[in-house]
């Protein structure tokens, strides 16, 4: 089957849906595709917490205050123009979502906002502490249905390659998972909104379809990536006992609202042994908490499941219920009474700051290709500010969709007819594999967690590279023959093919950056090195990865300045 459209949007999370809506507003035809169900895959629908936006509900605020905090969190590596899009355009998107009826919490007619780490004032809005991401996704799905423009929505499409002609992106080829058939798509402009890469790690907080395939697709097609070494780990991701239907990073609002005691396996507080101040509130920073937990486990003082205890046993049931009533009920339904037992937590891969290189209009270095959401690199520098993820998805999605539509309306773009010169690539592969792709995926996740996790060394990174090289050779360059619909072996092969490339990029970038900055921590190079205030950019010529260093873009002038206090 061959499809044609003005704008192709790959990925139907928050960024992809907003991109499709904005493009359709300009009157172009839009095709929104996803390997999962439209609006029900990716990270947005899973987020249960808060969204940063300077709406000024709790106290006076301005998007420029938000920008200052975002740049500070990025440890000197943010692209200021992209960070500004998050803070300025993101505010507009949050207000538009409010007009659409998303249901941001209110108090006496004003937005209710809470404090989050890294912000100078209460700035994060929410629907409720269990439903923010699902509510955002639901309202975007509703707007897709109501859109007066032409938006076709197709799920079950796994994109296997971006197609290029004349030095630009002209569409994509996808595998229809249900039938096993190929679908070719010609487009005047394409938006990559496939999310991040946290599936590369054994423990992660995102959905299973976020293996970094958008990065690999863009890189193979000729676009540049940057800041790929910066993977953010959330220190107190839920570990045990098992909970159903809960966000694994749900303990963050508990930590900064109620306080919590981090205890090792001997029930001893330990963060003070790693430089943290002793306090009756759990205020230790994420990087320090991650380090302390990791070192306690390495020393044999971890909790039974390999993490640390987070205890709220010093609080009464009344205090817990007053602060988080509905959440307490959900926790209780999982058989957990926080007044009587601690839970176990451990660092978990949560977000990726790197990604596809774009300008402030979301154009990549490959003509005809745009990027949005977590697929974009550069905006968050070395460390993302808490609450910026959904804001970024909406702001970048809106801008990418708008500019992709404008390019399509301008005319002159090539429209691929679906004719392939390499169709044999999909049909001439082996009938069977001499390895188990599902087992290798598990091995890859363990390798990345153990050697390319929150704390890295040259020896560990080199071990990872050696094994990744061997795994890529074993997987090969040609997919196995298909056996029809829902061919799990073939699907896993395509995932491995993309994930192994992305894993190598992350590992090589981490090996090259000989300092510790933000989410990238080298135990053999502790401390920040001012000479490394640089972005690492990677391209490929098809045979090897080429890394270059670039100066961080200069700050952009801010219009209508306000005093930042």
Your description of this structure?
- The protein has 565 residues and is an alpha/beta fold.
- The chain is 34% helix and 19% strand.
- It is built from 13 helices and 21 strands.
- The chain has helices spanning 14-25, 63-73, 80-100, 132-146, 213-221, 251-258, 286-298, 317-333, 388-410, 424-427, 437-451, 458-475, 488-512; strands at residues 2-10, 29-33, 51-52, 106-107, 110-111, 124-125, 150-154, 157-165, 168-176, 182-192, 225-226, 231-240, 261-263, 308-311, 343-352, 355-356, 369-371, 455-456, 521-522, 534-540, 545-551.
- Strands 1, 2, 7, 8, 9, 10 and 17 form a 7-stranded mixed beta sheet that branches.
- Helix 1 (14-25) packs parallel to helix 9 (388-410).
- It is globular.
Main traits of this protein?
single chain, 565 residues, alpha/beta, 4-stranded antiparallel sheet
- Low-pLDDT stretches: none
Q: Give the end-to-end Cα distance, rounded to a whole number of Å.
A: 58 Å
- Measured as a percent range, the helix fraction is 25-40%
Beta strand %: 15-25%
Major sheet size, sense and barrel closure = 7 strands, mixed
Mean pLDDT figure: 93
Structural classification: alpha/beta
The number of distinct β-strands equals 21
Which value, in Å, is the CA radius of gyration?
Answer: 23 Å
The helix tally amounts to: 13
Shape: globular
